[in-house]
Design a protein that fits this description.
about 15% strand, alpha+beta, about 140 residues, 6 helices, 4 strands, globular
């Protein structure tokens, strides 16, 4: 598995978590990195940092919003009031090119309590690709 595949999987798992809570605001800490990612991702000391980096990328791409981000002196963090944006909702409701993801990412996640790692990777890759398409559409 490449580094990008690993990061797509993490993004897929974050999106799945947010889809399941709907538009309720949630908080993410480094402990959540282990809770959300505990099934299938090798845990290492960099996991909370990678989790935070992916959350920041998702924020900057407009997939999610966060009320405040607290960075502590001990390298811990809290992303408060995180929720999908309208752009994030559009991405998880878009029709995937991969038929294994069903009619939408939202439908795939809502219909399954346990997805395998490859499905999370496909979700992250699909949504990440959509963000690139949005950027191209805006600049082109």
């Amino acid at each position: 598995m490449t580094t990008m595949d690993n990061h797509y999987e993490i993004m897929g798992r974050i999106l799945a978590h947010l889809i399941k809570v709907g538009l309720r605001r949630v908080e993410f800490t480094e402990d959540d990195a282990y809770k959300i990612l505990s099934n299938g991702i090798e845990t290492d000391e960099d996991l909370p940092v990678i989790f935070a980096d992916i959350l920041r990328w998702m924020l900057e791409e407009g997939l999610i919003r966060s009320g405040k981000i607290h960075l502590m002196m001990d390298s811990s963090y809290i992303f408060q009031d995180v929720q999908l944006t309208s752009r994030g909702i559009a991405a998880v409701q878009a029709k995937p090119t991969d038929p294994s993801l069903g009619e939408s990412v939202e439908e795939t996640v809502a219909g399954n309590d346990e997805l395998d790692a490859s499905t999370y990777t496909k979700i992250g890759s699909f949504v990440g690709g959509l963000m690139g398409g949005f950027t191209q559409a805006l600049s082109g």
